[in-house]
Amino acid sequence: MPPLRWQACLFIALNAVVLSMLLFDAPVGASEAPAPVKHLGEMLTGFGDSAWLIYTSILLFFQGRAGYKLLKTARSKAQALYVSWIGAYLFVTVVFSGLLANLLKRAIGRARPEHFHDYGIFSFTPFSGHASFESFPSGHSTTVGAFFAAFALLFPRYRVAFIACAIWLAMTRVMVGAHYPSDVMAGLALGAWFSLLTAIVFARCGLLFKLAPDGWPLSKQLFPDIKKPGAL
Fold first, then answer.
1. CB atoms within 10 A of CB 220
2. Of the N and C termini of the chain, which has fewer Cβ atoms inside 10 Å?
3. Which residues cross the membrane (predicted)?
4. Distance of CA 23 to the CA centre of its chain
5. Which one, of 191, 215, 189, lies nearest residue 203 by Cα?
6. Nearest to 184 by CA among 151, 153, 143
7. Structural domain spans, the chain
8. Each residue of 97-126: pLDDT tens digit?
9. Computed over its alpha carbons, how large is the radius of gyration of the chain?
10. For the segment 153-184, what is each residue's pLDDT rounded down to a tens digit?
11. Helix (H/G/I), strand (E/B), else coil: 128
């Protein structure tokens, strides 16, 4: 049922957040991860810092633009232009999904796991101005979700690996005690949805993607007919 693809994704995401909150948040808040698990989380959690992803996307954009100006062949120019638009796509998804996540977490004001014994898992103080009351959704997880969803849409052949990486890296926020599982699930879903919607906008502009009959964005092949027998 292709026309229901996005509805199914939204339904699964909402249920994953609610079930995580009801079943897993309290046990996580009441305990602390074992030292080796926490150490692993500390090693990996920096990947969700948006700063280096933003710089990388900017570098891709300008490198692609420079290549488009300097390269001679039409094929090389097309490849350079393709890289530059990937940089632009990643920049938009990472930056604006992160801004949205930061706005939401301040407006919702959920207490972080460090306050579990004082407030429980259903404590909300909107616009408190304190980082310890800005837990939902996870900003790091939003960045991770946006980044890997973008690559899953661009390179769907490897989408399973990208999804696995996103889950592992997002869950490092739980390992280090910074977020509840539902914060992470909400962040992943928010980032992924933002990448999907941005891909649809790019497709409508004729960039990187094309729209399937059901409205789902499909990655464009850079040279779709180059290996087809009899292609002109």
1. 16
2. C
3. 50-68, 80-104, 136-155, 160-180, 186-209
4. 24
5. 215
6. 143
7. 5-209
8. 999 999 999 999 999 999 999 888 998 989
9. 20
10. 999 999 999 999 999 999 999 999 899 999 99
11. coil
